[in-house]
Backbone:
């Protein structure tokens, strides 16, 4: 069942020297319910612009984003490239502000616990490292129990063990309460570990160059050799994606 | 002098500098020896007399009431209009010329015009003060509102913050330094304008009293009222503005 249908005919912006630059042209992508899709492409190819359009933060484009019936008002969780925490509110307040007032704080407690941030919940973001701020922004997105989760290179500045831990947490949360995830990355290994489907994008203007299903069972995704083999096969079978990485 | 400065605590330094000012004043008063410059002791004596007679508290209270009313209205209106202009480019472009004109009308002109048009009444006095202060607040808040972080506003929109939540948690903390700047410069400006307003068209308040003392050449009373003045503004700074600042900026490292 198609859940979200993205059809962007044209997205342009005006550059500083008054030229019109086409960021996205004739871009079509359909997401199935509860699918985990990774967008892989070089930086600057328009992935963030795409996420902003889906999140309804950018309406200056021609085309449409249609959502399935069950989402009249979808809850969209967006993990931005930089954490975007309110510096004048504590970690806990930052997370709770995204929640409706009546929602219990249990979910915040359990997520803080899972991310090992309980001890800094009353700290202001200025005192956090970038990695910690990122984890807080991830908790904020998970806490609202989103229908659609947009993730813009969320694990970039995390150290390898933390990134791995957060990835596992993401998958377990997603399996507990399935929702559609659109995950932007340029790390192919990370994409293979996480995604049901990989979508490779080429830049200026952004277009889909190939879509590949990852047919590795979820329980085998922590097998690094398997992931590496899949990556090698992928690169041999689809030489066109080499330039994107 | 400079070599002992680093070991003297700031509080002691403040007391020292204040004492020096008094000493210079005393010295000048003795040197001039004329009632156009009374000694600090005499001024303090007059100050107590005025307080005991109830004259100074009475007129100070009246002026403070005018200050409070005109300041509150100017700040509320100024913040609202400033935010509006900061958020809407077209509106800003349209009203920008008005602002420049109102910023440059001399305070005295507004006061005279208000009295001529509306009569020598209390509301005309307050209106004159508001018209003088309003453009300043608008300009300051407009700049703050233009500098709002778009990323944070996008975040608030994405996470469905209500309008009220967005204002309280996203917009207001960013405007706070601008509001404080407008408050401080506003208090200083309004004080001075209120005195002129009272001098020209009211029969009570500090400005009226100063006018009276001027006609009598009573410098001691003028200085006594000035001290009361400075004390009140200092009290507002220390008891209201500083704690507000501290509370609002506690998140900073």
Residues:
């Amino acid at each position: 069942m198609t859940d979200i249908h993205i059809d962007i005919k044209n997205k342009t912006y005006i550059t500083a020297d008054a030229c019109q630059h086409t960021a996205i042209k004739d871009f079509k992508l359909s997401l199935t319910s509860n699918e985990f899709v990774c967008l892989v492409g070089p930086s600057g190819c328009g992935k963030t612009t795409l996420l902003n359009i889906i999140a309804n933060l950018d309406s200056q484009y021609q085309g449409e984003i249609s959502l399935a019936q069950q989402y009249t008002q979808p809850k969209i969780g967006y993990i931005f490239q930089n954490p975007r925490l309110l510096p004048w509110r504590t970690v806990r307040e930052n997370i709770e502000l995204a929640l409706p007032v009546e929602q219990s704080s249990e979910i915040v407690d359990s997520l803080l616990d899972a991310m090992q941030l309980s001890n800094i919940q009353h700290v202001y973001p200025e005192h956090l490292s970038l990695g910690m701020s990122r984890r807080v922004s991830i908790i904020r997105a998970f806490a609202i129990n989103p229908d659609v989760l947009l993730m813009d290179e969320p694990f970039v500045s995390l150290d390898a063990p933390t990134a791995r831990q957060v990835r596992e947490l993401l998958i377990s949360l997603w399996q507990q309460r399935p929702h559609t995830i659109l995950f932007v990355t340029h790390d192919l290994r990370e994409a293979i570990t996480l995604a049901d489907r990989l979508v490779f994008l080429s830049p200026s203007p952004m277009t889909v160059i190939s879509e590949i299903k990852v047919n590795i069972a979820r329980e085998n995704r922590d097998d690094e050799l398997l992931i590496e083999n899949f990556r090698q096969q992928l690169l041999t079978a689809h030489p066109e994606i080499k330039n994107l990485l | 002098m400079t070599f002992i400065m680093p070991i003297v605590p700031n509080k002691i330094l403040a007391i020292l500098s204040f004492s020096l000012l008094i000493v210079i004043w005393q010295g000048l008063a003795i040197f001039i020896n004329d009632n156009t410059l009374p000694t600090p002791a005499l001024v303090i004596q007059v100050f107590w007399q005025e307080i005991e007679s109830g004259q100074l508290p009475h007129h100070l209270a009246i002026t403070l009431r005018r200050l409070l009313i005109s300041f509150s209205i100017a700040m509320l209106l100024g913040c609202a209009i400033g935010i509006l202009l900061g958020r809407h480019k077209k509106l800003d472009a349209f009203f920008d010329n008005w602002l420049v004109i109102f910023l440059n009308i001399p305070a005295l002109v507004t006061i005279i015009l208000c009295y001529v048009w509306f009569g020598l009444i209390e509301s005309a006095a307050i209106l004159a003060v508001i018209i003088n202060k309003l453009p300043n607040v608008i300009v300051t808040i407009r700049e703050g509102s233009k500098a709002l972080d778009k990323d944070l506003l996008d975040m608030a929109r994405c996470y469905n913050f209500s309008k009220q939540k967005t204002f309280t948690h996203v917009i207001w903390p960013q405007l706070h330094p601008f509001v404080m700047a407008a408050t401080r410069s506003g208090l200083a400006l309004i004080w001075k304008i209120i005195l002129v307003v009272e001098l020209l068209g009211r029969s009570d308040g500090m400005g009226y009293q100063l006018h009276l003392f001027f006609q009598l050449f009573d410098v001691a009373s003028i200085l006594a009222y000035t001290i009361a003045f400075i004390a009140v503004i200092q009290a507002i700074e220390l008891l209201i503005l500083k704690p507000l600042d501290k509370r609002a900026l506690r998140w900073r490292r």
